[in-house]
Design a protein that fits this description.
With 111 residues, this protein is an alpha/beta fold. It folds into two domains: 30 residues; 62 residues, Vaccinia Virus protein VP39 (Rossmann fold), CATH 3.40.50. Helix content is 43%, strand content 14%. The chain has three helices and three strands, in the order αβαβαβ. The longest helix has 29 residues. The mean pLDDT is 80.
Length: 111
């Protein structure tokens, strides 16, 4: 049974910790919304019929690869960081290759 607070009850102001937590939740949700809008715009601009073959240059830790794979597309990633290549492979279960583009960390290391 829901009880109403007594007359004169006031909700106390949220603590600093609560404000920070709520701010972080908002930022994460806002970022997810923007990312989902970008996915929809990207896929909507591709001509032809799905599933698509998608090459993600600079795939980072593989967030986008994982999303496209979950939709049934064939996604392959390239990245200039050995750490990101390993993370993307593990996270997305997609093929991810080291890029070795001029200026990348891998271009300065022997493969």
């Amino acid at each position: 049974m829901l009880r109403m607070p007594s007359v004169g009850w006031r909700r106390s102001a949220p603590s600093e910790t609560t404000r920070r937590r709520d701010t972080m939740k908002y930022r994460v949700l806002a970022a997810l919304l923007v990312v989902n809008q970008n996915y929809a715009a990207f896929l909507g601009a591709i001509e032809g019929y799905p599933p698509y073959s998608i090459l993600d240059l600079g795939c980072g830790p593989g967030r986008d690869l994982s999303h496209f794979r979950s939709l049934g597309h064939e996604a392959v990633g390239l990245d200039g960081s050995r750490q990101f290549v390993a993370m993307a492979r593990s996270h997305s279960q997609c093929e991810v290759l080291p890029s070795g583009f001029p200026g990348d960390a891998l271009a300065r290391e022997p493969l």
